[in-house]
Automatic annotation (TrEMBL):
It comes from Tengunoibacter tsumagoiensis. It comes from the Bacteria. SUPFAM superfamilies: lambda repressor-like DNA-binding domains, TPR-like. GO terms for molecular function: DNA binding. This is HTH cro/C1-type domain-containing protein. Pfam families: HTH_3 (PF01381). SMART domains: HTH_XRE. Residues 26-81 form the HTH cro/C1-type domain. InterPro entries: Cro/C1-type_HTH (IPR001387), Lambda_DNA-bd_dom_sf (IPR010982), TPR-like_helical_dom_sf (IPR011990).
């Protein structure tokens, strides 16, 4: 792969994925164009220091919008930055596209960016990408299994982002569409990974009957990889937590055992099953059971064993910590964690977590600590963050 990039003018190193190291590519192209770091910073709307960190440390490059800006400003082929432009898609023959790994690499990149909490352009970006891949599939009479699989995975990404934006119409659209593709392909892995996301969205919407229906169907699929099966167990544990704590703990024990044993297995369903995620779900179950000390212990373990790159999970940990502390009457600590969580939830545009924090603020305001400067400061920060945006408290 490095030889290929060399033939089109790139002389730097490549990462494990075979693509040019972004920082080296940016520096090399900027230098060839005779641009200074200050000039590039001005074009990007950031500081010279930020450009230097992009080039030297590959920092700030998870955001797809930034990569697209760099592609346009420096004239770098989108493919070299792990992207593919709509213009390129229009020019490339479908038979060339589906015989390459380009679409799948793009999918993996979108998924990694999602877990990191960086911007991928929201539902509009997913819709645009889905239309591109759908066009390829259509030109192949919807008979190419690999392209249909990728299309299904992008639909799943649409479910996840729709849930984060609390756009449940989009969730329904992507959920029904992805599950229909999975059923057409008779693929239990695709169906299960679709249904677990659909279940999560219905849980947060408050439709527990459908959440349980989808979780149960996901669990019933045969021949699932341990990673995916463990991920479904974790989602089911959250859904069962209030009404069936015994089954919840059974699911959690199974999922935790799988996570510890199969952490290096291929992640077919993009669930990122880790011990840290298991501790987070365990903490949720303890919280529902009002076992607050156990919940805090589990949250400590979740924090310790969750990678810094999994920003969405870090945010969920902080929100739940604040909720547990408030339930114990530790209002000052709860307010502190809620403030930290608010900053993170705002940065990743997570509407469910913003709603949890808003609901918690109302509890704090009505508590004996409600007139404190800390709570008032939190209230002002929430107002500045949310404004007039409608936020619905999830289940």
């Amino acid at each position: 792969m490095e030889d290929f990039w060399f033939t089109i003018g790139y002389s730097g190193s490549c990462g494990e994925d075979g693509f040019p190291t972004p920082g080296e590519l940016i520096k090399q192209t900027r230098t060839k164009k005779g641009l200074s770091q200050e000039q590039l910073a001005l074009e990007l709307g950031c500081s010279r220091t930020m450009v230097a960190r992009m080039e030297n440390e590959n920092l700030g490059l998870n955001d797809i919008t930034t990569r697209r800006q760099l592609s346009k400003i420096l004239g770098i082929a989108p493919m070299m930055l792990g992207l593919i432009s709509r213009e390129d898609l229009a020019k490339v023959q479908p038979t060339m596209l589906y015989n390459t790994t380009l679409l799948r690499k793009g999918l993996v990149l979108h998924r990694e960016v999602y877990f990191s909490g960086s911007s991928i352009g929201g539902l509009n970006e997913v819709d645009a990408t889905v239309q591109q891949v759908f066009g390829i599939s259509k030109s192949l009479d919807h008979k190419n299994k690999e392209v249909l699989e990728i299309l299904c995975h992008y639909g799943q990404l649409g479910i996840d982002i729709g849930r984060e934006e609390q756009n449940y119409k989009a969730v329904e659209r992507f959920g029904n569409w992805s599950s229909s593709i999975a059923r057409r392909l008779n693929d239990p892995t695709l169906l299960s990974s679709t249904l677990l996301r659909y279940a999560a969205a219905m849980y947060e919407k408050g439709d527990l009957a459908r959440a349980r229906q989808y979780a149960d169907e996901a669990l019933s699929q045969p021949h699932l990889s341990p990673q995916l099966y463990g991920g479904v167990l974790l989602e089911a544990s959250r859904i069962y937590a209030r009404n069936d704590p015994k089954t919840t703990m059974k699911f959690l024990d199974k999922a935790t055992a799988i996570a510890r044993k199969n952490s290096n297995e291929a992640d077919e369903g993009f669930v990122k099953l880790t011990p840290g995620f298991c501790y987070l779900r365990s903490a949720k179950a303890f919280y529902e059971a009002q076992e607050y000390e156990n919940a805090l212990e589990a949250l400590d373990m979740a924090e310790e064993q969750t990678a810094p790159t999994l920003v969405r999970r870090k945010c969920a940990i902080q929100v739940l910590q604040a909720q547990v502390l408030a339930s114990q009457g530790h209002y000052s600590d709860a307010t502190q964690y809620a403030s930290l969580a608010l900053t993170l939830a705002s940065a990743i545009n997570s509407a469910p977590n913003l709603a949890y924090i808003t609901t918690l603020y109302k509890r704090l305001k009505n508590s004996s600590f409600g007139s404190s400067k800390e709570v008032n400061r939190l209230g002002k920060a929430i107002t500045q963050t949310i404004g007039s945006r409608p936020i619905v408290a999830p289940h």
